[in-house]
Structures are given as structure tokens and as C-alpha cells.
Prior knowledge:
Helix content is 0%, strand content 65%. By secondary structure, it is mainly beta. It has one domain. It has a 5-stranded antiparallel beta sheet, with no helix packed on it. β3 (34-53) and β4 (56-73) form a beta hairpin. It is elongated and about 60 Å long. The mean pLDDT is 83.
Amino acid sequence: MTKQPELEVVESPYAGGLAYPRSVEVGIPGQEVAYPASLELVTQLEAPVTRMHLGEEVPTGLVRYSVVEAVVMDGQVVALTRWLGGGVLNPQTTH
């Protein structure tokens, strides 16, 4: 995992009560400029779930996932602000 740059995230006073996405301003410490961005919910697929069978690790077909709050600028995730939850899903079924 790469180290993320330090960012100051300031929520817009006009975002009151809205869920996601939320408008924020992003500034780099030591610089006077603030850039418009948004806080959004992002899902990430992680490692496949495995189990041991006859001494070997075999895939189960299930996948771990996480839901995180992320700072997004110009359609790109620039920082993860907090982990909100996660679980295991079967990609072969609809949820």
C-alpha cells in the first residue's frame, strides 16, 4: 500500500444534511490554495476467501469487500478518510 499524501479536508457549509456525495475543499498543508472535491462512498474488492482442503489453500468463490469514505477529485480517488464496513459476497449471485 502506498503512503497517501497529507490533505486537509473542509466540508462545505452548504452540504448540510445531504448524504453522499458531499462537497468539500481539499488543501495541502502549507499551501494557500483549496481545491474543490467531494466525499463519496467507494467499494473495494479485496482478497478472495480461501479455505484449507487436504493441506492446500483453495478458493471458495467468495470475495471480501470494503466500503470506505473517499475524497474524490476529477473522478479520481485521492485519499481514503475512513473505513465504514465490509463483508463477504458471492460474485456469482445478485445482491
